[in-house]
């Protein structure tokens, strides 16, 4: 198994190197004599290409491109000799310039008058099958014939196999099959598998651009090393590219071509077509795993060379994500590069303006860091690099607020209700890198003077503060926002003062409008300006010139109207704000803010038991078996692989199947009974593999764009080494026996709990606390950054506050998921103490009223300031009653609710197979995987794998679904349907969701269209795209009528207000 996994990784590494290739397409090699070929190869290498793909230089008619008359002899312009010899010379000269030679290949298409050796008559369509007499067919179709039958004749395949072997021996490295859909996949396998067996370096590409999904899917397993997407026909406001690419990448790595290889004339560099082609080139450079560039761009080789050079340096390697821009915002293509980096290509969808980037839209997909503008590679297009910033370093327990000062008591400007604020500022509110933090405060002061304020913020390891002005709102509520770019502890505060200049300007305007004499007021204004210039802060400040100009104007005795206009200008107001005195300025106490990385707020979790992943029946699974499942999990769109405890399992009082008190000899026991002579929490169960195997799993998961999350369960089997080494860490009963874990009347015979406090003194057992922390640090060193914490509500709150702070002080990027199925206040308190995410009551919310109330609660202050819900649809412990009775439709309903309701959701394996057989009368699975191996048929009929993949794809492509925030309930009269919108604050992403809650019967619903979200009146057009089937519509109606069925119980629409160009 280890050798097979290593072979897979080696093969993947070879393909990665190959698909980093930049391939130049020379469409008509027959027109290029050898001297021109040499010059072309030299030019291509200088430009940065490392491969060249040719139309074979065989003999064929000029009016029928690519269809050979004699496949075994070169065209006269190449000397007319044997193809093997001609190709050998072309390959040598290409190799001399460092280029790999590929050939276009269409073996089933020949000239009508082809030589017998090229195509025997019995292989081809009969004359009755030919369209030569059909006037609707193009003329070129009349001169060709095609191989008959699917599968193709065996003799035809054998002849081509022999021919291609000679070409490969001559130096050809591979082929681009330009019409792969015309041969049966079994024909491609029969043709190429023997060749690859003796020539493992053979590379095969399939031109799948423009094929239907069914045609492309049929090529899976046909042996191709690369496929092509449809970028040549894509526009930046179309979302289909992402879905197509995900589908094609399940077949093979995806190469990209900016233009369809048509062999047309080179584009004029200054033309609109050339600009569009260069935009497509940069899209292809970032989107594809490899690049194919046609001869149409040969007049723009410097621009092509720039794109190729950037691609080599940037090394894009993860899967890209497309965020389509709407309503004036840029379309973003985001792709990970080397660890901790991502590149972003921003395009104006209309190709009319410079792209307007909403960085919060990509926050769930980007590392924390300041976006760096690299270049504008072409008009209406911008390229950025985001590299992970150094995490904030802070000591555990930093930023505890002090008592109010005398300044607070004597202040003339008073602060109330500063938000976000957790426990009156004693605990940290939560934020995500790149996502703006909205700060609000009530400013109260006596009199009629105008107030001004500023929000100040910084990472706690920085000396200086950043500042942004506070803006007034209703009822003395002021607001400002900032977007943190680093992970870790930050602090913010507000300051405010009585603004003398604003007060002066207000009174001046009112007096002037009332036609009063303002001569004395102008003199007072000049005094204010002189006072600002006299302050030390004004020395050397560029804004000083603005104030000096205004003062000079006043000294010239202007007309009152001119003076008022000059003094009320925004530029002068900004200069005075910066340089004038700030009387009675008051600054609030700092409040802590914890900034997490993207995975803290957006993720799709998949839970599996590694021991159940082996293919042979009854075999114990290993980490290598988990590695083998990663492609399937990634295809479903999951980015977190969560493993229950992987540690040695105790033998003493081991549980049997279905929680039986007696275990059979081959029962594996519960993984939550942690510890045996093989080790404890820092050891691995021997049957799963070694630490090196686990490291390979972490590495392989990262290569698939996934993170491994581990279960942190603070409990021990009676065989745990700690019981021998530290018996004082455990509670004992009156008879001296160990106290087993209990939740009366339940008793867990196979586990015991540690005791966090000394029973006699009541003091914390600090050695135990440190040992538990060191367990986490051990797995962090092993590459794990996400921990699901088992039952934290049964352990002391002071312990969690200390542990989370201590770990975060060392590793701010660590994510803690709290499995706190407990009372609401305890669940929320754990979140306030630092847990990043939490399981929720979503599992038991089934009616429209229950769901709507809960989504409102979670998405609004104060809960949203410190609590992030992770909507698990099931767990190994919870087989929800709803799923037990609802059939396949119920699984679709719960998946839609979870994926649309929160930026975080999860499922335990088997959900995709609609597993729901319960222990009678309980929310527990019969034959629970906690106590036995459960091997599954992942392709069993009735599964919802494709629907889960589609929902995850929709989530990633729509920023409104990246979070639990932005929930907007919509009116509908049907109590069996939940209707709502999810919207980003700037409305750049709005998704309308309708989900039937009835798994048995169709439901009709009329959904009120939320024009008011966009500031539209009731008669304005509203536009939408069905995210399930891609259909677009424009509505003038007040409501949308939908039909929901058990087979399709949900609908999702992306909404926008401005019409699109395409």
Automatic annotation (TrEMBL):
Catalyzed chemical reaction(s): alpha-maltose 1-phosphate + [(1->4)-alpha-D-glucosyl](n) = [(1->4)-alpha-D-glucosyl](n+2) + phosphate
Primary gene name: glgE
One Pfam family matching this protein: GlgE_dom_N_S
Protein name, entry field: Alpha-1,4-glucan:maltose-1-phosphate maltosyltransferase
Residues the record lists as binding alpha-maltose 1-phosphate: 655, 715, 750, 791, 930-931
EC number: 2.4.99.16
Family: Belongs to the glycosyl hydrolase 13 family. GlgE subfamily.
InterPro entries to which the protein is assigned, alphabetical: GH, GH13_cat_dom, GlgE, GLGE_C, GlgE_dom_N/S, Glyco_hydro_b, Ig-like_fold
Region described as Disordered: 116-140, 652-684
Subunit structure and binding partners: Homodimer.
PANTHER family linked to this entry: ALPHA-1,4-GLUCAN:MALTOSE-1-PHOSPHATE MALTOSYLTRANSFERASE (PTHR47786), GLYCOSYL HYDROLASE FAMILY 13 CATALYTIC DOMAIN-CONTAINING PROTEIN (PTHR47786:SF2)
Organism field: Bordetella bronchiseptica 253
Enzyme class of the recorded protein, top EC level: transferase
Keywords tagged on the record: Carbohydrate metabolism, Glycosyltransferase, Transferase
SMART domains documented for this protein: Aamy
